[in-house]
Amino acid sequence: MKSKKNLILIGMMGSGKSTIGRLLAQKLNLSFLDIDFLIEKKVKMKIAEIFENKGEEIFRKLEKEFTLKFLNKTNCIISLGGGAFIDETIKKEAQKKGITIWLNWNSQTLINRIKKNKKRPVVINLNDSELKNLILSRSKIYSKAKYKIDCENMNKIEIVEKIKQIYESI
Ligand code: S3P
Fold it and tell me: Domain containing 26: what range?
């Protein structure tokens, strides 16, 4: 198979990066790499436990190390953690080594989804308005992705199909 750049899914937690990534990988017959999952497997701790026991700084170091390492692969679908693209080096490398795709949703949809899962350490103590501010400030950075998918009125299959079309056109 001809070596092709990775497809790199970015976006807020709750934006469906892992679900869409897995479906997309099946559809395109590519490997799927979920950076958070790879960290959990290696460290033998859940992300929430890493935050709790080692702190966010150590998590961010691990995230950077793992993300930069796996960005060197080719022919993969890679799902980044929601905060990874905020790091300047990760952003630059992701842009260079892959096709970045932002899964964009309305803030309220993300807030509703994020609140359903109480295990997310970064947002556990944020109220709705703080969460909205985080989404808005991160969105400015996510918007640097090469492609933006407005997912709000699409189902999973349609989102996957849209990204597949992008992949096949490049
Ligand atoms: C984070 C998002 C999480 C995980 C960690 C930090 C963030 O990944 O990396 O809890 O800062 O947004 P998901 O976006 O896959 O939930």
Answer: 6-165
What number does the ligand 1 atom closest to the CA of 138 have?
Answer: 12
pLDDT mean over 118-132 = 91
Residues 6+ apart with CB under 8 A from 22: 32, 34
Mean pLDDT of all residues belonging to the chain: 96
How many Cβ atoms are within 10 Å of 63's Cβ, its own excluded?
Answer: 22
Residue 170 falls inside a structural domain: no
Q: How far is the CA of 4 from the centre of ligand 1 (A)?
A: 27
Looking at residue 118, its pLDDT comes to 75
With respect to residue 158, please indicate whether it lies within any of the assigned structural domains. yes
List ligand 1's pocket residues with C-beta within 6 A. 13, 17, 36, 47, 81-83, 120-122
